[in-house]
Write a structure and sequence with these properties.
elongated
Length: 227
Amino acid sequence: MSRQNPVRPGHPGGQLETLQEISDIKRIMERSSRFISLSGLSGIAAGLCALAGAYFANTVLNDYYFEYNHGGGYTDKNFESLKIKLLALAGVVLAVALTLSFVFTWRRAKQNHLPIWDLTARKLMWNILIPLISGGLFILAMLQYSEWRFVAPACLIFYGLALVNGSKYTLTDIRYLGYMEIVLGLLNTQFTGYGLYFWAAGFGILHIIYGVLMWWKYEKSPAPLKG
């Protein structure tokens, strides 16, 4: 009766097994400490929603300025109507983008047999919401005083800070997207007349690029997840 010899320390087979065990441990720790179900398709969907929103916002602004130039000039009523239309449009775009992002994230979590709402997800959400809520209240205060010039830069900067703040609880790649959003927002402060274009670039184009890269890196040929 043959007996299998144990793998000696230093043997190539033993080293491979050790490396595999280390890889498994690292993967398990990552799953327990980071929310890794974010989908690149969520970024693409959010980017497309932002570009569509920018297109409609540009249409609304063109209509307002056409009326401004040909309909008797500025009136408080027209300006209030403009603000309501833009805020309503922003709310619709945000709702659609969040819904699509949730659907794609939920689908990826289901495929990987991971929970969609656990302690790590709650930590991620909390760290993202703090800068987002602060930025939202700051932007509402600017709108209260009809200060529109820095609305788009503030959106980009606070959103970037939210991504950087939450990156420690999810894929680290999201941190670099946050850095780019912050830089784009700071540049926008020097070109305030082009806020809509910077907004479209930050929330639209950057999101699509990020989403494609994340899909290619993590979802096109995903490594099998082991429990």
